Amino acid sequence: MFGEEANVLEELSLNGQSMNFVIYDKLVYGNPRKDIPSFSNYKIGYQITENFIENNPDISTLEWTKKSAKEIVMGSKYSDLLQ
Hints:
By secondary structure, this protein is an all-alpha fold. The protein has helices spanning 2-15, 21-29, 40-55, 61-65, 69-74. It is elongated and about 40 Å long. InterPro entries: DUF2268. Residues 21-73 form the DUF2268 domain.
C-alpha cells in the first residue's frame, strides 16, 4: 500500500476531520481516480494502531483501548495528520 498509502494519507490530511459522508464513502469503497483502494479507512486505522502499540510497548491493552482516536494518532508516526 506504499503509493496508495501516500494517497490515502494525503486525503486524510485534507479531509480527516470532515463529517461529509461522500468523503467517508470514498475511503470505504475506494476512489480509483485518486488511487485510493477500498477499505482504506480500516487499513490505515490498523496501521496507525499497530504503530502506536510499537511506539508504546509498556502500555496495556486496557489502557490503549481507552484512549481517544486523537491520542492514538498523536502517539504514532502519523501524528502529522492532525497538524
